[in-house]
């Protein structure tokens, strides 16, 4: 006789709890806290631009929504070209004064800024969650890396500046949206510590309020910072080509980076241009599969929306079955969804591998590229679903993309040769070392790469032929902090390398005959 529904033999399931937004974490909560923390920079429902040492209500704000759930958020107040020219000229005036401020005073002001950033750490992280969709722990880590990294420079700057002087003009920073604190704010504070006034353009896609709060805290301590928003093509004449600019620091894609590179090369201007590359992970005569699985899951942090993500695995054909046995558990364990959704008000914020992509358009673009690649012959090895996501009831999920893995994307697909900047992995199978190297060097230069192989001699021999600035031995590499250097090969980098002492050297002047380590039009010099 079949068991009744009440019978002990009937399987039971625990209902999935209905998620809710954690109290105190809404966008309005973050906005009100920002108004209270820096009323000079945030006014009513708008953000102001910072230039000439003050906050200005100029610029026409664009509407903006959060990628998290399409909540309306503050949009960038876009300056026109004429206002940008005034801002750059004012920055040069600040620079001429700041470069003569004694180093002990510069260190004290930067240290006071870092103390203020530490005081507002959680608010800065919450703004990152809403503006660019970072999960809570990753958002906190972005803030912490900026603070801790600059503190290291404060402690070591006397040695780094020996025999060096500030640039003749301010440093202009144009950076992507994905790391507002640990890349952009970090760079700005080190540049100022070295004696330069600093200018930054707010990334169009996100980070406005977080950057505004950080710059407000710096400006209160007398740091000569300028923060403006606007259309890149309209502001480029001032932020890139202006004769007042002493150095251009750019982080972004290859297309925009190539245009910037052409401009600075024509002008002979100091430059640091970090561009994308297809970072690859090679598997060759490798057997330590148990160690690989946890490393593979971590490559999906922040949906691979970072310059050092690994979207391509180049795998020895004979090892493919073993690789899949290690890879699939990792990708199936990935957790994604709303970074602020909890089952109960007292629950901690969720531990997620990633939240949304930067916007719905990017999610649709990658979904369409995936469909197109499969229609042309790519093999779908894993396709997650939004049903597995961690979401609020009926929330907008248009900016979310489940993890996806494709085998052998066709050469006609952009997924074959370009970095997707999203949670899509592609796998290419190879049979010879020559094929392995060709596949790992597919993008003519990368920032990082990794090779997993059991034999140290094989690693040393093959790694020397991989065109990436940093190469990991069985482990992923990152941009690095403090003394770790960073740069790129081929089209992934142009201009001076950075990190450690090199960041200070890149934004200061040394002996007249000095050749900075970097990738320049007329020479390539490794550190």
UniProtKB/TrEMBL annotation:
The keyword Oxidoreductase applies. It comes from the Bacteria. Residues 1-26 are annotated as: Disordered. SUPFAM superfamilies: ALDH-like. GO terms for molecular function: oxidoreductase activity, acting on the aldehyde or oxo group of donors, NAD or NADP as acceptor. Residues 9-26 have a biased composition (Low complexity). This is Aldehyde dehydrogenase. It comes from Streptomyces gilvosporeus.
């Amino acid at each position: 006789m079949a068991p009744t529904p009440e019978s002990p033999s009937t399987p039971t399931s625990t209902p999935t709890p209905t998620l809710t937004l954690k109290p105190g974490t809404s966008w309005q909560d973050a906005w009100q806290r920002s108004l209270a923390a820096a009323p000079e920079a945030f006014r009513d429902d708008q953000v102001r631009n910072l230039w000439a040492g003050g906050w200005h209500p100029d610029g026409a704000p664009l509407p903006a929504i959060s990628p998290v759930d399409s909540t309306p958020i503050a949009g960038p107040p876009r300056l026109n070209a004429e206002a940008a020219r005034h801002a750059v000229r004012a920055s040069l005036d600040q620079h001429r004064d700041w470069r003569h401020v004694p180093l002990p005073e510069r260190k004290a002001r930067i240290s006071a800024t870092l103390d203020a950033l530490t005081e507002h750490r959680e608010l800065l992280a919450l703004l990152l969650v809403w503006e660019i969709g970072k999960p809570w722990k990753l958002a906190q880590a972005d803030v912490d890396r900026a603070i801790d990294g600059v503190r290291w420079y404060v402690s070591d700057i006397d040695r780094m500046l020996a025999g060096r002087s500030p640039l003749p003009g301010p440093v202009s920073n144009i950076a992507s949206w994905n790391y507002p604190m640990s890349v952009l704010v970090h760079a700005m504070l080190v540049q100022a510590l070295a004696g330069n006034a600093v200018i930054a353009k707010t990334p169009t896609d996100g980070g406005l309020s977080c950057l505004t709060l950080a710059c407000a805290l710096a400006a209160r301590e007398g740091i000569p910072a300028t923060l403006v928003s606007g259309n890149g093509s309209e502001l480029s004449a001032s932020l890139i080509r202006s004769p007042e600019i002493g150095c251009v620091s750019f982080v972004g894609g290859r297309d925009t980076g190539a245009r910037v590179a052409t401009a600075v090369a024509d002008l002979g201007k100091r430059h640091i241009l970090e561009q994308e590359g297809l970072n690859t992970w090679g598997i060759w005569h490798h057997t330590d599969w148990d160690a690989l699985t946890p490393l593979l899951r971590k490559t999906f942090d922040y949906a691979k929306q970072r310059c050092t993500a690994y979207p391509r695995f180049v795998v020895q054909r004979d090892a493919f079955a073993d690789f899949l046995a290690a890879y699939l558990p990792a990708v199936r364990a990935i957790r994604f969804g709303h970074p602020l959704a909890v089952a109960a008000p007292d629950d901690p914020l969720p531990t997620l591998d990633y939240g949304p992509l930067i916007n719905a358009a990017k999610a649709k673009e990658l979904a369409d590229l995936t469909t197109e690649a499969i229609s042309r012959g790519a093999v779908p090895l894993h396709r997650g679903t939004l049903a597995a996501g961690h979401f609020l009831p009926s929330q907008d999920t248009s900016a979310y993309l489940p993890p996806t893995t494709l085998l052998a994307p066709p050469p006609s697909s952009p997924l074959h040769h370009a970095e997707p900047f999203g949670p899509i992995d592609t796998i290419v199978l190879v049979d010879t070392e020559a094929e392995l190297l060709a596949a790992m060097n597919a993008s003519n230069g990368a920032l990082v790469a990794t090779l997993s192989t059991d034999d140290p001699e094989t690693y040393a021999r093959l790694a020397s032929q991989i065109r990436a600035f940093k190469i990991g031995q069985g482990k992923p590499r990152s941009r690095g902090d403090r003394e770790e250097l960073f740069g790129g090969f081929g089209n992934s980098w142009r201009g001076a390398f950075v990190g450690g002492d090199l960041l200070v050297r890149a934004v200061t002047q040394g002996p007249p005959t000095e050749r900075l380590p970097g990738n320049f039009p007329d020479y390539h010099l490794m550190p």
